[in-house]
């Protein structure tokens, strides 16, 4: 039941945790203590429009370097939260223009706020936190495009 509750409060959190854990990314310190060392299973609703991009990402993620994985985490987090309102092509373009250090900071921010949101008991408070924090990250990413 916690799995579903976490996803409702912080959409896509288990996919992010899986990538971070499996690839031992530097942002692991932001994961909740209990989420650092266990298996993570992903349930995918293949009828959802977002499922194709998720399935594609899962198929190709083993051959990706750390910076590419961080970009994937950022993009997935934003798409999971904003859905169709999120312009993936613009995000990808802006992230491609960012320095590695900026991408790392953006990734840390999205992981930190996602984990924080999952800890809230209220879905509404979690979503409000994500709207605020992810909105700030998105503005930073867009401003990096110049």
Please give a handful of descriptors for the protein shown:
about 0% strand, mainly alpha, about 65% helix, globular
What does this structure look like?
It is a single chain. The protein has 146 residues and is mainly alpha-helical. The protein has helices spanning 2-9, 13-22, 51-60, 66-82, 88-97, 100-119, 123-144. Helix 4 (66-82) crosses helix 6. The longest helix has 22 residues, at 123-144.
Strand % is under 5%
What structural category arises from helix and sheet content? mainly alpha
Large-scale geometry: globular
User: Mind telling me the C-alpha Rg?
Assistant: 14 Å
Largest sheet composition: none
Terminal-residue CA separation: 43 Å
pLDDT < 50 runs, ≥5 residues: none
Per DSSP, the total helix count is: 7
Strand tally? 0
Mean pLDDT across all residues, rounded? 83
Q: How much helix is in the residues?
A: 55-70%
N-to-C series of helices and strands: HHHHHHH
